[in-house]
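Sample pair:
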Amino acid sequence: MSSSLSAIYSAENSLMLNQVAMNITNDNISNEGTKGYCDQTVNTSELTSLGEGGETGTNVNAAGSGAVIDSISRNVDSYLDSYYRSQNSISSYYSEYSNSTSTIQDAVNGLSGSGLTTDLNSFYSAADTLSSDPTDSTTRTAFVQSAENVASDFNSISSQLSTYRASIVGDGTDAESLSQSAVTQNCNSLNTDLKSLASLNSTIASSSTGGVTPNNLLDQRDQLLDDMSQYAPLTVTQNSNNTANVSLGNVNLVNGGTQVGVLQTTLGDASDPATVQICDSNGNAIVSNANSLITSGKIGADLELGGSDPNSLSINSYINNLNTLATSFAQQVNTIQEGGQYTDNSTNPATLSTTNMNDIFVQSPATQTATYPLTAADITVNQNVINDPFQVAAASATSAANATGDGSNALLLYQSSKTSIAGLNNQTTQQYMDTLNGTIGTQIQNITNNASSSSTIVSQIATQKGTASGVNLDEELSNLIEYQNQYEASAKVLNAVEASLQALITAVS
């Protein structure tokens, strides 16, 4: 009778075990396309019991006792998870960078084609025409208009770049622009994920008691960690209770069920408008400037794009180059202007004069004489020259007072297009723009190539993760058939034992 009862117990245990295994297999199949889901495996071992005679502390294999479920594990590869997150941070950095290069490229295009290059050529051409006919008011007006076009180009490109930079890191003076910037939005998104992780950690810890592993919660945790990796180079540490700590550099952001670090953006200065701080839950700064810790991810790209590193493709670096071009060009033109004579129409007949000479290019608001350095944002044509184009010093300083038809100084303006300028690395204005275009074009191409290659690497790692952790339908269907066969066999054993017992009871009665 004892052996029959043992057989019944073993068969029932096998039924339950295989039922659980079929449920897990069905769950795997159902979640084959679910993002973040990890394939689960039922781990079993032979069931043991106390040895005969009831000796305490002596566990021996009990023949016929069946099997027991030790655990239901997730098929994960911790190395691939860590590698994916580090590469995803790099890929997100280049992707964010690459997405921004289109705006920078538009600004670069503003230097060439129908932009600044064309208007500079028109300016020099107008100076050539003026040198041939300096007494014609229409010719002089056309020259002044060409100068205004050049200043307008500088203003427009600078404004475009400054506005775009403000959208990424703010403008360094306006808290509202910083709060609406991309770097702040990305910091806020990361903070939301950090808060969610801390909450999920608490749930995981409370669900991991008694040897139970909450696989569905661990799937959510790993998916959240993958998402967080797009923002910054985070370090993840696994705890024994299945929770995960997250840090930036050596600064903890999440410790178990508590978010101990919050990323906040604060106003910087003109060079670096946004500073990322790591603060505690009360808003006190743990790290007053964490920019150097954020070397990848979307936030890293935002900081570099909006920063002042002269060796990287930053918007500020491009603006500085543009300012250098504007001030060097203006100074060259104004120096030639100051070395000539303008036509004073207040006399009758008109005479040449150098009294109260006006510079052609000045800062806005307009002044009579330029102060250097100018910037691309504030360069403008002197209003006095606009009001009276005869203020342009077309004549040489050595010409007689009545030689109003002299255009030799205007000819120098035309010839200056071929003159190297010390402030432009001893290049002409056109050579400087060509060099700038080439440098930025190369940087943009490098970023585009890096974005493409890093994206490919992440895709390859994701495929490897899918192979290691994803659901293989062929394998699951094979397992399902195996468990069904085992279930049916156990059921037959149970039916046979029950039939034997029933026959024995009938015989005895």
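The longest strand covers residues 67-74.
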